[in-house]
Amino acid sequence: MSKGLDHETLNENVKNVQYAVRGELYLRASELQKEGKKIIFTNVGNPHALGQKPLSFPRQVVALCQAPFLLDDPNVGLVFPADAIARAKHYLSLTSGGLGAYSDSRGLPGIRKEVAEFIERRDGYPSDPELIFLTDGASKGVMQMLNTMIRGEKDGILVPVPQYPLYSAAIALCGGSLVPYYLEESANWGLDVNNLRQSVAQARSNGITVKAMVIINPGNPTGQCLSIEDLQELLRFCSREKLVLLADEVYQQNVYQDERPFISSRKVLMDMGTPISKDVQLVSFHTVSKGYWGECGQRGGYFEMTNIPAESVDEIYKVASISLSPNVPGQIFLGLMVNPPKPGDISYQKFVQESKTILESLRKRAHIMTNGFNSCRNVVCNFTEGAMYSFPQIRLPPKAIEVAKMAGKVPDVYYCLKLLEATGISTVPGSGFGQKEGVFHLRTTILPAEEDMPAIMDSFKKFNDAFMEQYEDQRGYSRM
Hints:
Catalytic activity: glycine + 2-oxoglutarate = glyoxylate + L-glutamate; glyoxylate + L-alanine = glycine + pyruvate
Pfam family, one: Aminotran_1_2
Organism: Papaver somniferum (Opium poppy)
Pathway: Photosynthesis; C4 acid pathway; Amino-acid degradation; L-alanine degradation via transaminase pathway; pyruvate from L-alanine: step 1/1
CATH topology of the largest domain: Aspartate Aminotransferase, domain 2
CATH architecture of the largest domain: 3-Layer(aba) Sandwich
CATH superfamily of the largest domain: Type I PLP-dependent aspartate aminotransferase-like (Major domain)
Structural class: alpha/beta
CATH class of the largest domain: Alpha Beta
Helix content: 40-55%
Keywords: Aminotransferase, Pyridoxal phosphate, Transferase
Number of helices: 18
């Protein structure tokens, strides 16, 4: 008789989950690393792991909160700036026993108030702290919302393809159906509302109730920034089709061009006025893991709800209560992100300088990487306008596709494995994010150190051009 944790008795939803960012490529890279090979992990947006330095001010504040006895040391002012000391005392006063005590299941009320004030400054419209839940990173918030909405396999969620695999994995885990809508690579990964309509109509004809639509802005893995016009069209679409808009806006600080700055879905919705501003149900997500903070390991995030009925908010609170409390250090990092040092504060100049240095370097790296890919044979790449990734299309020769299939591999997985073995560069195949039939990509972060980037791109180019040389039919297969 089988036992409860034998593989054949496990929840089928768990077995259906795929998560390419830490999939076959990552596992092979980890093996090679154990064998002593130098691996450049560009498979996941993990800034500090690739050398980004933490910002000083938030680390000083959290250090004092973690070790409050330092505040009683007469020499504390010699080591920590006065504004960091004051802020640590402020955050400790919001807790019911320091960082080791549970908070409210929605997060500390004082920090939710700081988040609401940040949202009001950003968007120009008041925000209600009671409709803001703090979470262990944005991913936990996304999973909480999907779990609340999905009743079974007949409930569908519209997800952009290529997509961040959190969505496909979480939808599978909740037992729902992913309804894909394809972004247009030739239009800089733009949206096509006709394609959206077709996706919804097809899902409904299969008996699926489409409940929500996900947008990732700036895009992951595709790196595009949505314009106001795009967002207005999406909001009108959600209003017509009675869809909840799940706005993944975790990369809002990561913008590398000036034509399309980040604008929140909430601001665009409010600017559109009634009736639509009172009609569309919207949940927006943000985190301390991205931007120039890059504090992935701290697990601080939030979601804010707009136009969600009070009874539903109560149910979401009930489910949040099962986990008792989001981690308190992560909440404090979030408070510091939404309420950073201000002009006149002792730490202000240093904070601005550190932030600016990181963002300017990311902007340069976005250009180095995109230009590098576009200089390679059979590789084309849209410019990374925002987020932390490049998503080049690899135009694989028919012979390479055939050899990959004979080896039992998806063609872009085969290419990425060969790249890893030859160069130590660990990427994620485009098939892990979804892509159109017969089209192949890879995703890489733009996070390796700026000084290492030219050598990494040279190494990629050398591998790629040799790979294409090996597999191209010299009688005429060439770059399209």
